[in-house]
Amino acid sequence: MYLYVKSLHIIFIVSWFAGLFYMPRLFVYHTEANDKPEPERGILFRQFVKMEGLLFRAIMVPALWLTLITGFTMLYITPAWLSQGWMQIKLGFVAGLIVYHFYTRKLLHELKAERFRFSSLQLRLWNEVATVFLFAIVFLVVLKSAVQWIWGVVGLVLFAVVIMGAVRLAKKAREKRGA
Hints:
Layout: H1 2-33, H2 40-77, H3 85-112, H4 120-143, H5 149-178
Helix pairs in contact: 1-2, 1-3, 1-4, 2-3, 3-4, 4-5
């Protein structure tokens, strides 16, 4: 039974992360479309609102809940994990990921209301936050107690810095091509 639940859990995680990765990318394009002249801006605005809403409601929300249900089911089957440090830290990252999910929903509503608080670069950086969560959670699950927490945190911070630097380099390359 456990392996079936674990398999479903992995499938739902993949689905949830697909949405968590794609939604901020849509926000980047949505924000950049705001600079287009009419009628192109209006057409793109309506299309992005439709795509973002459908992605959130049809993929991200169900995948979030199914991930949580299967995760809690595995904890119910194996409650001893709750006393292990790696699981407690993993659950902390999962809580952070849930906050990320709902903040992404907040951004979705802001863009739908035509409030563009963030630049496309800031949204590209926001897009990478889910990647940092993914790395942290996967390494915790795979390495469990073998992780040396201090080195793990240092590695995670360095990874985040590398990702943010890569986003900035990609922006400079795009600007150079456009010039």
